[in-house]
C-alpha cells in the first residue's frame, strides 16, 4: 500500500497538501485508509491530523499488503473534524468514501437521515452528509442491488433538495466496495463534477480523485452520470445512472 | 478557575483519574470547560485527551477568571470519543453538561432526536444522548420556561423508553445555564441516581458530581427528583420535577 | 483577540491555509497562541490540529482580551508534529515564537542544545531548533540583556554551523516578550530572509509574518539584521545585530 | 494480534484502565503497538489517546497477524503526552518498550543523553528517559552484543545517578527485539521491581507487565536482575545482569 499512498509523486499524502483539481487547496481535515486483509470486514485507520504529518500512516502503509484498499483525505464542507467524520466509513464488509456534497445539507439533514433504516441508523457515528448517503444506500439494499440502491438514494436525495427549494448542487464522487466488487459513482446535478479517475495496471484497479502521478498515463476519467463496476476479473463496466431528468440535468 | 479545576485535592483533574462515587473508575474519554466572560455566549475548550495530561487545560484555567463556569470529565457510555461529544455543549448563551444516560438509547436514538426542532437540529454536532437531551430542551422552550422544558423532555423521553419496552433506566445529573441562572437537574427512573452536590461559599455556588475536597464540608446533595435553581442573589431553590409516576417511581 | 486571530481577511487562521510569502504553502502542522492576562506568566493554547479546523481556537479567542499576545501557525521543517513542538514556547514570564530554521540542524543538534544551561535544559519539552534557540537565549541572559543574549546565541549558532561545514542558512524571524517589552528579531545568513512585519495602530503593536489584511496599509517590514524593541510607550526602536561578518554576510 | 490485545479479560486495553500491579491506577497517557510483518523494520501505531477508546487500535489489531509484536500502555512519569513519547520506540529493525524510570532523570537528563552517540542522537524524537536508554543501548552495540550493551548502559546510568547523589531508584522492565530475538530486562536499584511476566504457549512467547488473564496459568515472572533471551526455537534463557554491587544492591 505504501507504493500507492506515500511513494508516487502525486500520492495521497502529496494530494493532502495540494489538490490540483479540487475546489479547495488543502485536504487537511483528517484522512483515512481502509483495507481488506484476511477477514471479510475491512480494517480502518482514520485520524484528524493532516495526512502529511502522520507517522502512523507512513508506518502502517509500509507494512500493509492488500489487494483492495481505499484512501481518502478530507476537506470538510462544514461538519466537524472528528475521526467519526473521516472517510472511509464501514459497516460489516462494506466500505465507502466520498468526495462531494449534498447542497443545502443543513436544511435537509434530518430528511436525508430519514432515508436510513433503523437497522443502519445505529451505525451512524458522525454527522456528515457522506456517511448519511452511505447508510441510506445500505438501507436501500446496497448488499443485494448495489447500483439500484445508489440510484434510489441519489434520486430521493435530489427530490428532497427539490422539495426544499435547494439550488445548491448535489455532487458525488463516491467509491463503494464489499471487499470483492468496487463501485465508483460519479455524478452531479450541475455542470461541475468532482474528478474521479481509474487505471487498470497489472490486473489491479486504482480509483482516485486525481491521477497518482503527474502526467502519468493509463488514467481515465470515470464518465459522469455513471457507476463503474469492477469485479477483479474482467474489464470495468459502466452503468448509466437512471435519475429523473428534472433533478439532474447533467448527471 | 484554576482554584476549582486543578488545585483542590479532589479537583476535576483528580476526578478524571479516580471518581469515588461514579460507576466507572476513570473519566478519561475527553473533557471540557465552558465559561462566561465579557460576552453573552460562553467560551468552550473541549478535547479528547484525558484532562489529567492536558497542558492546555492547566494553562487556560490559570488565566481565566469567571463568575460562572462548567467543567466536565467524560466517561463514554458508548458513543465515540470526539470533541463534538465532549461536554459542555453550547447553543447561543446556553450551556449544558450531563452525567447519566438514556437507557436503551441506541434503540430510540432517532425518536429522541425527533424531540429536537429543525431549528436546533442544525446545532447537533455529535451523537450523544446528552447533546440530544439538551437540544430537545432548547426546542421545548428552555429559554422561556427552563424547568418546564426540562420536565417535558424528560417525561417524553421516559415515555419513549416505555413504549419501546426499555427497562434500562434514565439517569440524569445535568447542569444548565444561560450565563445568569443555573439549573441543576437530578433524577433517575430507578434507584441509582448519579451524584450531584452543591456548595454556597463566598456568594458563589459550585455544583459538582463529587465534592471538590475529600471530607470537605459545606457540600450538600441536590435532592433527587428536583431541579435546583440559582440566580446569584438568593439561596438556591429546589423545584420538584413533575414527571408521571408510571415512568419514574423514584425521580 | 478574535479580531486579530480569526476575523481579518488575512488572519492567522487564513494564513494557516495559504501563506502568501512563506516558502511552504500550508501551515497545517499545529498552531499556538500565548497571551498575558492578570498573571505575569502567559497562558498557552497549542494543538497539533490545523488552526483552521479548531473550534477551541475560535471559542477561546472570542473570549480572551489581552494587550499582548502571540499567535503562530507551524509548518514543520522536519521535527514531529506534537504539542511540545508547537509555538509559542514559554518559560516563566517569557514567551517566544519563531519562523525560520537552523540549517543542518540534525548535524549540530546536540551542540546547539549545549548552548542551553542545565537550569533551562529542564524546560526542554520538545525537539525543535526553535525551542533550543529560545532556551539558549534564556541561558545567555535574556532576562537581563535581551538583545545581547539574542546576539550571542545567534553568533554561537552560526559558529557551530561554520565549524561543521554547514552551508544551509540560518534564517530567523523570531518574537520574544517578557509580557512588557517585545523583541522581534529578523536576520538570515543568506539572502532569503523570513518576512516579518509590524504595525502601530491605536497604541498597539502587531508583529506578524504577513500583514493581517491584504493590501492593508500601516504595515512595515522589520529591517533585516535588526532587533525591534517595543516597550509600549514610545515608538519601536531598531537595534542592529552585531554578528561577525564571516558568519553572516547579509544579517 | 486482536486475541492478545483486545480480547482476553485482562488484555492490554483492559490494563490501560486498571493495572492490578502497577503503582499508578490508569495507563491513559497514550499507547502504542509495534509489529513485524514482511519487512525487517517493524510497523508502529502510537497515539496519545487512551487505548481503551481508540477505534483505530481495535480495527488495526483485528487485521494484523504477526509472530512478534509489542504493545504498551503509558502512564507518564513526568514527560509530556505526545506520540513521540509513546512506546514502542523503533530504530531500523530494533524496537523497544519500557516500564520503569530513571530516578532523578530531570537532574541528569543531559548526561544520560550523552550516552547516545551522534549517529543515534539523530533518532531522538521525544524527551523520555525510556527512549534515551534505548538509543544509548543502540549506541553501545545493541546490534552486536545485546546483553552487553544493556549492561553497560544500565551500569553507566547507575553511575551517573550515584555521582549526582540521586537516591531515587532506577527501575527497569524493558523489552527489546530485532524482529528475531527477544530480550526482556528486569532489574531495579531498590526493592521495588516493575512486574514482568512471560508465558510459552503453542511455541509463542508472550512478555507482559501483567498476565493477560486473571488467574491465568502458565505465566512466570522474569527473574529480577536478569535478561531473558528468546530466539524462537528453544526455551528462553536467563542471563544475570552483571552490574556493580555498589550501584545496584538488588538488581
Automatic annotation (TrEMBL), chains A, B, C, D:
This is Amidohydrolase EgtC. Pfam families: GATase_4 (PF13230). Residues 1-251 form the Glutamine amidotransferase type-2 domain. The gene is egtC. It is an enzyme of class 3 (hydrolase). The lineage of its organism: Bacteria, Pseudomonadati, Pseudomonadota, Alphaproteobacteria, Hyphomicrobiales. Keywords: Glutamine amidotransferase, Hydrolase. It comes from Pseudovibrio axinellae. Signal peptide: none annotated. Its EC number is 3.5.1.-.
Amino acid at each position: 500500500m505504501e507504493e500507492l499512498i506515500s511513494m508516487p509523486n502525486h500520492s495521497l499524502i502529496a494530494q493532502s497538501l495540494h489538490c490540483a483539481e479540487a475546489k479547495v487547496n488543502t485536504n487537511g481535515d483528517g484522512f483515512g485508509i481502509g483495507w481488506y486483509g484476511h477477514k471479510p470486514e475491512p480494517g480502518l485507520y482514520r485520524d484528524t491530523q493532516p495526512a502529511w504529518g502522520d507517522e502512523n500512516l507512513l508506518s502502517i502503509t509500509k507494512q500493509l499488503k492488500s489487494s483492495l484498499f481505499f484512501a481518502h483525505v478530507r476537506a470538510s464542507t462544514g461538519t466537524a473534524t472528528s475521526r467519526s467524520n473521516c472517510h472511509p466509513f464501514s459497516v460489516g464488509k462494506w466500505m465507502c468514501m466520498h468526495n462531494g456534497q449534498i447542497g443545502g445539507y443543513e436544511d435537509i439533514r434530518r430528511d436525508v437521515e430519514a432515508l436510513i433504516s433503523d437497522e443502519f441508523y445505529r451505525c451512524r457515528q458522525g454527522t456528515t452528509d457522506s456517511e448519511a448517503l452511505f447508510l441510506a444506500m445500505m438501507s436501500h439494499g446496497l448488499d443485494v442491488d448495489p447500483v439500484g440502491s445508489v440510484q434510489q438514494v441519489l434520486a430521493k436525495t435530489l427530490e428532497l433538495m427539490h422539495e426544499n427549494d435547494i439550488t445548491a448542487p448535489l455532487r458525488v464522487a463516491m467509491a463503494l466496495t464489499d471487499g470483492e466488487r468496487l463501485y465508483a459513482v460519479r455524478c452531479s446535478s450541475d455542470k461541475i463534477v468532482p474528478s474521479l479517475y481509474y487505471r487498470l495496471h497489472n490486473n489491479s484497479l486504482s480509483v482516485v480523485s486525481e491521477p497518482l502521478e503527474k502526467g502519468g498515463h493509463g488514467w481515465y476519467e470515470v464518465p459522469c452520470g455513471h457507476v463503474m463496476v469492477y469485479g477483479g476479473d474482467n474489464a470495468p463496466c459502466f452503468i448509466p445512472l437512471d435519475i429523473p431528468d428534472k433533478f439532474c440535468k447533467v448527471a
